[in-house]
Structures are given as C-alpha cells and as structure tokens.
C-alpha cells in the first residue's frame, strides 16, 4: 500500500533501529535488499526487503542451520562480521567473515533472498575481514577486504588467482581501514572504505581509478562523511554502502549510534542502520551529514506490515526477529511442545554462561515496555536484557519467588526479591530514556517488576542503563531483550514488546 508524500514529509532515521550494524545493500529492479552483522547470535545475518529505502521488513536470516555456521566457540562480539550482499547473473551473493576458530571468509548464494541460502564456499585465499564482491565487464570477480587487500576469485569454487595485493588502504596514518566496497559508477571504479575505527572517530573515505584493481586516487575531501568532533546526535558514522534510488538519485546506508546521557555519552541500542542522501560533485560523492530526521525521498513510500506488540508463540517456528546466543538446538527451545507456548530447557545455569538457553529480540527504541507471562513450575528462568556474559540485567522467577539480578563486570547482585503465589506470573521491564541532568547522568533507567492480575505494576528494582552500554561493556553488539531458562524447564505463554518513543 503506497502513500502520497507531501513536499515537507519526513521519516525516521535510523531506518533500521537497534543492533543492526555494518549494513550492505543491493538493488534488484524496484526492490532493495539489505543485510547486517550479527556477531555471536544465531540465526545469523538478517535479510531485509524494501521498496522505498525507508521502510524495511525482515524476510528471514541467511544463516539459519548448523551446516552453514558454527558459533559455539565464538566469544561475545566474535562470530559474524560485516557481510556484503550483491546480485549478479540472476543470483544473490553473500560474502562474510566468521571470526571464530575454524571460521574464516565464506561465500553463500541464493536465488531468493528470503532463502534458503546455500552451504558455504570457503575462501582460504581471501585475507583479513570485511570481504567485498564486484564483477567487471569481463565477468571477473574481484574480492577486496579490510586493509585494501584485493584478489581475483572464482565465486563458485572459492579458488583465488595470484596472491592478494594492496590497492588502497585509506588515509595514511588512519586506523582500521576496513569495510571496502568496490563499484563501477560512470567512467570510474570507486573504492569506498570505513576508517578511523568504529568508535567516535569513525568516517567514510573513497578513492577512484579507471580499472577495478587501481591505481586509485583518493578523494581530496576525504573523509566524505564523518561526525567526529561534533555535537550531532548521531555518532560513530561509517561502514557505508552506496545504492541508487528509484529516481536515479544516490543514497548511502551506513551505521551510526545514538549516544545518550552525560559525558562521555552512552549508546545502548548498538550500531544502527541509517540512510543519507548523496550528491555528486566533480565525479566525487558528497554527503553533508546523516540527518537524524530523514527528508523522505521524492517517490511514494511503501510501508511494510506493522510489527505486532505481542508474540503468542502460536507458530511452529519462531519468527525471524528472535535470536539466540551461539546456537538454538530444538531440544532446548521449541514452540511445538505446548500449544501457544515457548518452552525453554536450561543448559547453562545463568546468563553468565556462554551456552545459556536464551531467545531475544533487539531493543529498537530508546524507551519501551516489555512483558512476558512465565510458568516456572518445573524450573527457573525469566526476562533479561543482555549485552554479553558479564553485562546483563534480568528478572527471574522460580516457584514461589521472583528476583531482580544485575551482572556488571565481576559483580553479581540481587537487587530485589518478592514472594509470589505458585503458578504463572507476568514479568515486566520498563526502559525509560533519561534526559541528562549533568555530566554523570546515565542514558536510561531500567525498571523490573511484576504485574498483579489487575495490571498493577510492582517495581522490584531500578537500574542505571549505562552499565549495559557499549562504552562500559565494550564490544560491537547492542542490547537484546528476551527470555531464558536457568534451571529445569520453563514455559512462556506470550511476550510483549511495546515501543514508547522512537
């Protein structure tokens, strides 16, 4: 269903909020497809579809079975880094790095981006991380990776031709030249990279040459995009990909963060996917800045279906938005055992453990309300906000008691507890964006509690959200809110995620 735009219409930016970093986009006719990094979470690499570059609907996850991917040895913020998605010769191509022992660079294909995707073609001759794919007019496939290393490959077999050679490594002295993307646009081949590190110094730079293997001439105005050293509400801008809009205008998808609170600013949702307009001057791309409110492109919007607040677990498989830590064996996680319920069986005994049984959804809004109905009669489990094994908050139910727990670094604390009658109990989390009141104000407040049958909320613990931020925990992910089992078997009747503000 289309809507007619007013000249002054605007849309939300980020276009894909929450932990959706390292976007890569391709256009096929009137359709756009986009993928993101997922690190230690499984299934991996969400695949999104759009008709307007503004509204994105998740079709599935490209890597959704053990034959494609093993993450059991992946540390937090290890695993799947920086996929590149391209369409060539009637097929979708997805190249990615698994930063795990026994991983490396891999290539997958599909005729339908919703899947199924193939098992991997291994690429032992491709060095580094962040591999990219581009085909020239002769059908030669060029693979460029972080650090500016480039090698010709056979994408069907993984064979490489000759040793990798460095073609352009960005601005001399700039750290972390990565996320390369190679394009033929007009008379030039352009090599777009991220540099400066994925923190506040992040930026986008570009070079051009007459052939795909260079030599490359850097843009005199590099970086073509950065928000470093500014008060802009979107920071860490980088890891970009270029795409043409329906009217032949050019656009950039990229990652950024939204720091909140006082100093130094804490971002909690992870690196999100933003959209920015691009104009061309003297055959160089110019991006003024990433708008925090996006001027809508000059073509009809095509919104997708609205995301439902409640998941009743009434399908035979979990919806594609649900992700787990490292794996999801059916014997530990199923919607088939009890009709209309999610059943989790414990493996690790807490969220401190790397093999915890956990299924969650990315926090996508600065303020939200999350509720779940748990039946802990046969075990112990609850509702959690996870960043990694050492940074998580949760409200946990066992027969007759509910506790609020905090794990920050080496400290594990019981924040509050309450006796409850035997049987099901509604657990509730309220995330409230906190306006800064001084330099030490955190980004938000997380309040955990239970709901009485009449809907009355009884708060059991209030926690400062800065301790579940990347600036405190480190790493590359964002908050994931979900359900877990820590002992025995627990059943969940439903899960609500309700945004309160963007």
Strand and helix map with partners:
Elements: E1 10-12, E2 24-28, E3 31-35, E4 41-42, E5 44-50, E6 57-63, E7 79-88, E8 91-99, E9 104-110, E10 121-122, E11 132-135, E12 141-145, E13 149-153, E14 160-166, E15 178-185, E16 188-195, E17 203-209, E18 217-218, E19 225-226, E20 235-244, E21 250-257, E22 272-281, E23 284-286, E24 293-295, E25 310-311, E26 323-325, E27 333-334, E28 342-345, E29 357-362, E30 367-375, E31 379-388, E32 391-398, E33 401-408, E34 411-419, E35 425-433, E36 444-451, E37 457-464, H1 470-473, E38 480-501
Antiparallel strand pairs: 1-24, 2-3, 3-5, 4-26, 5-6, 7-8, 8-9, 9-10, 11-12, 12-13, 13-14, 15-16, 16-17, 17-18, 17-19, 20-21, 21-22, 22-23, 25-38, 26-29, 27-28, 28-38, 29-38, 30-35, 30-38, 31-32, 31-38, 32-33, 33-34, 35-36, 36-37
């Amino acid at each position: 269903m289309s809507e007619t735009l007013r000249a002054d219409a605007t849309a939300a930016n980020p276009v894909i909020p929450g932990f959706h970093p390292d976007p890569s986009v391709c256009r096929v006719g009137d359709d756009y497809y986009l993928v993101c990094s997922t690190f230690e979470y499984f299934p991996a690499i969400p695949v999104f579809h759009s008709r307007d570059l503004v509204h994105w609907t998740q079709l599935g996850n490209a890597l959704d079975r053990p034959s494609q991917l093993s993450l059991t040895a992946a540390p937090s913020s290890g695993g799947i880094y920086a996929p590149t998605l391209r369409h060539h010769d009637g097929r979708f191509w997805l190249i990615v790095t698994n930063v795990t022992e026994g991983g490396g660079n891999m290539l997958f294909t599909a005729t339908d981006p919703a899947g199924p995707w193939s098992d991997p073609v291994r690429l032992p001759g491709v060095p580094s991380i962040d591999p990219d794919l581009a085909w020239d007019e002769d059908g030669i496939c060029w693979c460029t990776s972080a650090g500016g290393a480039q090698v010709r490959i056979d994408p069907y077999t993984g064979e490489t031709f000759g040793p990798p050679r460095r073609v352009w490594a960005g601005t001399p002295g700039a750290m972390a030249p990565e996320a390369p993307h190679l394009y033929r646009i007009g008379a030039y081949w352009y090599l777009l990279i991220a540099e400066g590190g994925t923190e506040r110094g992040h930026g986008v730079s570009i070079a051009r040459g007459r052939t795909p293997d260079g030599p490359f001439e850097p843009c005199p105005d590099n970086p073509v995009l950065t928000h470093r050293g500014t008060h802009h509400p979107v920071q860490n801008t980088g890891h970009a990909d270029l795409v043409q809009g329906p009217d032949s205008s050019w656009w950039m998808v990229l990652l950024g963060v939204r720091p909140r609170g006082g100093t130094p600013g804490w971002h909690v949702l992870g690196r999100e996917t933003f959209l920015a307009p691009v104009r061309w001057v003297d055959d160089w791309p110019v991006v003024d800045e990433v708008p925090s409110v996006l001027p809508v492109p000059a073509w009809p919007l095509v919104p997708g279906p609205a995301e439902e607040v409640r998941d009743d677990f009434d399908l035979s498989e979990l919806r594609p938005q649900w992700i787990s830590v490292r794996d999801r064996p059916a014997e530990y996680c199923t919607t088939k055992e009890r009709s209309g319920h999610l059943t989790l069986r414990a493996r690790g005994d807490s969220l401190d453990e790397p093999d915890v049984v956990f299924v969650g959804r990315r926090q996508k809004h600065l303020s939200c309300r999350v509720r779940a109905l748990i039946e802990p009669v046969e075990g112990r489990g609850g509702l959690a906000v996870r960043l990694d094994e050492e940074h998580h908050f949760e409200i946990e139910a066992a027969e007759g008691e509910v506790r609020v727990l905090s794990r920050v670094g080496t400290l594990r604390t019981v924040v509050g507890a309450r006796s409850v009658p035997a049987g099901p109990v509604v657990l509730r989390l309220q995330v409230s964006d906190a306006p800064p009141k001084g330099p030490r104000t955190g980004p938000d407040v997380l309040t955990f509690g239970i709901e009485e049958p009449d809907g009355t909320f009884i708060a059991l613990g209030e926690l400062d959200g800065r301790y579940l931020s990347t600036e405190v925990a480190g790493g590359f992910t964002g908050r994931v809110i979900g359900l877990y089992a820590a002992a025995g078997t627990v059943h969940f009747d439903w899960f609500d995620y309700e945004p309160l503000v963007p």
